[in-house]
Specification:
By secondary structure, the chain is an all-alpha fold. It contains four helices and no strands. It has helices at residues 13-18, 25-37, 45-60, 68-102. The longest helix is centred in the C-terminal third of the chain and has 35 residues, at 68-102.
Length: 104
């Protein structure tokens, strides 16, 4: 009679729950920046797509280790995000004025 192998142990419920996907924090920030870039109405879509694609490679390296082109990408991203922030501020101010006008 042939010898039988013992069956493999099934993973327990605790082992199944232990399989948690680790999330890269840099990737999370790059994704958030990419989403923020998409909110610009003034910059052409092709430029926003380019900046979004370059975000991770520019931000992965430390500031001191960045190439001059990576630094320029970070500066461009900062400029676009600052413009978006200014536009949002103007929109908020305009809405507050309209809201204040309805109180009278």
């Amino acid at each position: 009679m042939p010898t039988m192998k013992r069956p493999a142990a099934a993973p327990s419920a605790a082992q199944k729950r232990a399989k948690v996907v680790e999330v890269d924090p840099v990737q999370l920030h790059c994704d958030a920046i990419g989403e923020g870039l998409c909110r610009s109405a003034e910059i052409p879509t092709s430029v926003l797509n380019m900046l979004s694609a370059m975000t991770e490679s520019a931000l992965r390296s430390c500031k001191e280790e960045r190439h001059k082109y990576q630094e320029s990408v970070v500066d461009m991203i900062g400029t676009v995000l600052a413009g978006i922030e200014a536009d949002c501020g103007k929109t908020i101010a305009a809405l507050k004025e309209r809201l204040a006008g309805t109180d009278q």
